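User: Quick sanity check before I run a bigger batch. Here is a single chain. Can you write out its predicted 3D structure?
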Amino acid sequence: MKNTLFAFSSLLIIFVGICCKQSKNPLPGRNQISDPFFGDPILAKNNYFETLVKGNDKLFLKKQNAKYLKEYSKFGDNELSYTSQNTISFKFVKVKLVDKENVKVNLITYLGSKKVDSIQFYRNISGNEFGTYNCLSYFDKKTNKIWQIKYFPSNPIRGNSVGIVSYKKSSITSDGTIKSDSLYYLDESLDVEMDKYNLYY
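Assistant: Done. Predicted structure follows.
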């Protein structure tokens, strides 16, 4: 009996230890995004950006983008529609592009049948120097908030380190307009490069 209790107690301690260890990791790695069209909710964590820049941002963003690319590549040239409780509807549209590694998904808002606004929700471009670019987003269906990070995986100006352009949060208003709430980070020099390479479109 004592041996059984001891064994059970040991297993319980190990289990609790593993759970505690996992909870201390603010940016846990996952193989899949639970709801691929809506993005990865890790982007909405309070400490996401701070933890990202203090850690190995290049490796983490590479893995995170790989999840997005894997999920969006499954859908072909599809679109997903979603209607909120206040008559605003959303459509995620995967744009048809020639290169399969060049993936673009737009989020479009509608009020009734009228198109109101749109935002580039996901972007993956493979190329050289500033020709390689990623945009990752997460849409919270409950709050109509969008978190988004834009970056160059390799910044030739700064020793090919990750060049984060911006990290921000936006809201979809009751009339379907997408407005910026909080711009947590902006690198103006890289923002110029984005405009130069027409990456906003």
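Residues 2-30 have pLDDT under 50 and may be disordered.

User: Great, the batch can go ahead then.
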